[in-house]
Amino acid sequence: MDRRDHPGADPADEGSAAAAGSGQLVPRGEEQLPEQVAELAGELTEERSESRRRRLAKAVPRLTGRGGRIAGRGGLAAWTGLQAGGRWLTTQALAMAPKVPIRNLDTLRAQYPGLTPEELADALIDGSARAAAGVGAAVGAAMVLPVVPAAPVEVGVETLALVAIELKLTAELHEVYGMRASGSATDRMMSYLDAWAHRRGVGLAPGGLVLALGSPLRRQLERRLIARAGRSATSLGPLLTGAAIGALLNRRETRKLGNEIRDDLRRRSPDAARWPG
């Protein structure tokens, strides 16, 4: 059995998850965007076949509403300026975080038998970097098609997909180094989102996180999301240069983030060095 922390899972949504995995996305409205992105990012990160990963990544641009109405008019209206775009991204990221599927330590050890913590961390970072590169390539390539959605929405959905990939990586690195955040599954994901925003291991108990409008954490999260969206925007180049640049920038950024969080966890981990290969 594949044991995971996935508080957002619902048997009624299994058809939608399968549709996302096959690239046949079912338009369900913008309110379903966080769930769709979380499911797709989970599949992308765990897929080991490069060809299959590329096919999955092509589903990301479709979430903008080019072929359906997932982001749709509401998403376009939200991106009327940098500040409004940051608020929209923050709201979507907070809704998405509890839905990202996280593998616990037992599952990771079963899927990667015989690896030391360092080797397993390397494998997770590499898989996430490849997934992020696939998203960048898919979104960059989509911008050369005859029917192109408004670039802000394209950037917003790509950013959410990248955050989901990196949030999953952040949580699973905590599992590897024996430093799972405390609290409920939802509390843990909020702690991991804080860790992602600060590019370090979890440092606060769930009760210490304040996500209200105007709170320091929410402002930091919004700043990080805007910066991530800015890097995504630079990849929307002409012809297929956007695909190449997007893949390169995303791979590099996700790998850098993973290494920074891993280094912090390695320094503080109470038992990773004692985990046998």
Largest sheet: 2 strands, antiparallel
Question: How much helix is in the residues?
Answer: 55-70%
Question: What's the mean pLDDT score?
Answer: 75
Q: N-to-C terminal Cα separation, in Å?
A: 22 Å
Specify the number of helices: 12
The multimeric state of the shown protein is single chain
Percent of residues in beta strands? under 5%
Walkthrough of the structure:
This protein is mostly helical and 277 residues long. The chain has one domain. 64% of the residues lie in helices and 1% in strands. The protein has helices at 14-22, 33-46, 50-57, 59-62, 72-78, 82-96, 105-111, 117-142, 151-176, 185-198, 216-233, 241-268, and strands spanning 4-5, 102-103. The chain has a two-stranded antiparallel sheet. Helix 2 (33-46) packs across helix 8 (117-142), helix 8 packs antiparallel against helix 9 and helix 9 crosses helix 10. The longest helix has 28 residues, at 241-268. It is globular, with a radius of gyration of 18 Å.
